[in-house]
Amino acid sequence: MKKGLAIVVLFITAFRFEPKAEVYTVNDVQQFNLLMTKIKAGDIIVWKNGSYTDIKIDFTPIADGTSKNQIILKAESPGKVSFSGNSQICIGGTYLQVQGFLFEGNCTLNNNENVIDFSSSSKKTATHCRVTNCAIVNYSLTEESGKNNYYVNLVGIYNEVDHCYFKGKTNKGPTLVVEYKMDKNYLPGSDAAPSTYHHIHHNYFGYRTFSSNGGEQMRIGTSTSSFTHGFNIIEYNYMEDERIEAEVISNKSWDNIYRFNTFFNNDGAMVIRHGQKCFVYGNYINGKSGRNESGGIRVINPNNTVFNNYAENLEGGDKGIKSPVTIMSGLTGSALNEYYPADNAIVAYNTIVNSVGPAINLAFGNANKGKSFEAPKNVWVVGNTVINTVGKNTKPIIISDTNAIFKLNDNFYTNGNTNETGFLTINQIMISKKNAFLMVNHSVDKTAIDSINQRLSIHNIKLSENEIAQFNPKWKLNKNDVGVNWIIKTK
Hints:
The chain is about 10% helix and about 35% strand. By secondary structure, it is mainly β. The strands form seven sheets. Strands 1-2-5-9-13-16-19-23-27-30-33-37-41-44 form a 14-stranded parallel β-sheet, sandwiched between helices. Strands 3-6-10-14-17-20-24-28-31-34-38-42-45-46 form a 14-stranded parallel β-sheet, with no helix packed on it. A twelve-stranded parallel β-sheet has the order 4-7-11-15-18-22-26-29-32-35-39-43. β1 (about 25), α2 (about 30-35) and β2 (about 45) form a beta-alpha-beta unit. It starts with a helix and ends in a 22-residue tail after the last helix.
């Protein structure tokens, strides 16, 4: 009897104090701020539908959420709560989630005020927080204002941005930025900043323009923090109609993965600008725009790996840094914000179709600033296929610096010419079509497969031979695969 009573007491003790989640409804900042002192894990704050101007939301509750019971701030109906003026949402805390808001119309934010910031007004950063199903549309300062800001400033650690819609940014500052925490005594170029482990996926990035450097859709790090081991994953994003800026995505840190993204009708390229041990694979790039500017993939800095991407209709190959694949030289005595050579790069099993040549530009040098170029060493170009290169230079590969040290093997091309061994001519009979994708069946270098998997092992990833060497048409995204579920996107 006593034993049974003890079990009942333990059961009641374990469960009777489980707090009940509450749902609160607000429509102004004062109501919201009062809730920051009382909400608890699992609670939900619903912002009533309507159009609001000059709303500063500081989502920094005293209590934290948990992995099973996040604290959620959401629109009453997705897309029906719109903000304009100098509105913004700042997030500081643990396991917080923001859902369903729209920023649109006249923007009067100050310099360096970001639309969504994973850092509160008191500089408390976010951990395990998520922004999902939100849109920022034409809510931009003008270029003429001279002001710099971001649509999303992603700081803290283990945060997530997914199924969001970003369009119409025209002032300085990338659309989305990952920034690393640099303490007061941080030494530029050190690896002392913490890894962030962010996940950025299933977002739509639309029209974006800026007349000079600083108009990227995404920048992961800075030159100052470029030796930080980020461990961020950027996947399943759709990026289109980026104008003028040479970099659609600018990687500036170590150990990041860019995979299964679709790039369409952009002027820039997917660029590993700084950082090492990054991976670019499974991406689809279509450069057809008529502006003759679209780039492919550009590799700078040592120990990066680019494989199994499909690029077609790229128009900027005659501009050096915008070849479908550009593997760059560095500068002797390079500063952090300059160029380190792409030593030890592996460029493997990529497919380049109907693009302005040269298809692969190895050891191209840029902006020497009075310094001598340093050609890359130990570059491995293996298993790539180049089909129907167009333009004035139809070569499948050029070596821009004869001091480069490289290995070429098992690469194929249909037209143009090269004296480089390791590139073999094929005819149209050897090319097959699968769901509108052109492919060539060829043997696979087992050593290359093993080398790529060895590099991937730091992420606990091991890919099959087909995943490394055969592009899967399912990796190409449609617009409706990404972004918010309440904006209709034409295909």
